[in-house]
Amino acid sequence: MLRGAMTPEMGRAEDVAKKIRIELEMRGLHKEPVGIDIIELPVLFALQREGIKVVDGQQLMSNARVIKTQDEISLLNTSAMMVDAAYDELYRAMKPGLRENEAVGLVSKVLYDLGSEYVEAVNAISGERCNPHPHVFSDRVLRPGDPVYYDILHSYMGYRTCYYRCFTVGYASHAMVDAYKRCRDYLDAAIELVRPGRTTAEIAAVWPKAEEFGFPNEESCFALQYGHGIGLAIWEKPVISRLVSFEHPVTIEPGMVFALETFWPSTDGWSAARIEEEIVVTPTGHEVITRFPAEELLVAGAHYFTVNGPLPTIRETEAPPSARVLDMIEASAKTERVGVSG
């Protein structure tokens, strides 16, 4: 009752249970099991005291939502479209000095302006916060060369999104470019397998083992290489993971809609790439409904120019010394040697 705000002595749980018992008795169903998917514990206990047998209805409801109708797919597509627009605005806004929480505010405004009824979360992760991967935003300020990735979760007419995109600010290191390519390759390999008749085990098999990217076991890296159904809830069936899919494979069917998300840490030890696509299973294959570009790493806020033209967007974070600097170092060393010998 109101998530525990009603205290036990108020008797509200008992009142609810009695009303349910009366309705069941009127229909001759009071001796039949009652399936419930979500319930507060005081109400559960009160129903049991009324002699009602409560059984798990969550699996039944989850199974009923696995295959989406065409109307549901249209709503999921519309919900993803709104995030497309949010990423476009965010890409234009990202630059050194922007804070993660400001990015969250910008995304929320775009979504609500477009008609979202609920922005559940905008995870904004940048710089050294990228690895290990948290799922919250902070007031960290973006800096040149930062990796940054976002997950946007919102609801349009009840239908959700789970939609990652990854960027760098100003320029990217070679290590980050390599991490993004690895992350994208794993995602593309999974997407390629999505079609009726394939299984979740086949998809999970193309993803790396936990030990290959720094984790001791599959449980410790659960949800980093991951797939999950999406619809009225952000996490629905089927779940795709090396943790569970090999022993409990699920056959892919037309009308399923799920998200596939991959992660790869950079060799620099602190940056990482994270990408996600939402997939509709069609009778002959699949359709990707998350359309903001992610085939290659996007650089935001790249507007730095020197007398010789624009700075490259891919470069080492610690630039090697120029020939002129090397000549100056050598000349200084010669001077020191002459001074010592004199």
What's the domain count? 2
CATH architecture of the largest domain: Alpha-Beta Complex
Instruction: Write the CATH fold name of the largest domain.
Output: Creatine Amidinohydrolase
Question: What Rg, in angstroms, do the CA atoms define?
Answer: 26 Å
- At the first level of CATH, the class of the largest domain is Alpha Beta
Outline type: elongated
- Low-pLDDT stretches are none
Tally of alpha and pi helices: 8
The CATH superfamily of the largest domain is identified as Creatinase/methionine aminopeptidase superfamily
Plain-language structure description:
It is a single chain. The protein is α+β, with helices and mostly antiparallel strands and 342 residues long. The chain has two domains: 2-64, no CATH class; 70-300, Creatine Amidinohydrolase (Alpha-Beta Complex). The protein contains eight helices and 14 strands. It has helices spanning 12-26, 41-49, 58-64, 70-93, 100-114, 174-192, 200-205, 323-341; strands at 34-36, 54-56, 118-126, 147-156, 159-160, 163-169, 226-229, 236-240, 257-265, 272-281, 286-288, 298-300, 305-306, 309-310. Strands 3, 4, 5, 6 and 12 form a five-stranded mixed β-sheet that branches. A hairpin with a 2-residue loop joins strand 4 (147-156) and strand 5. The longest helix is centred in the first third of the chain and has 24 residues, at 70-93. The protein is elongated, with a radius of gyration of 26 Å.
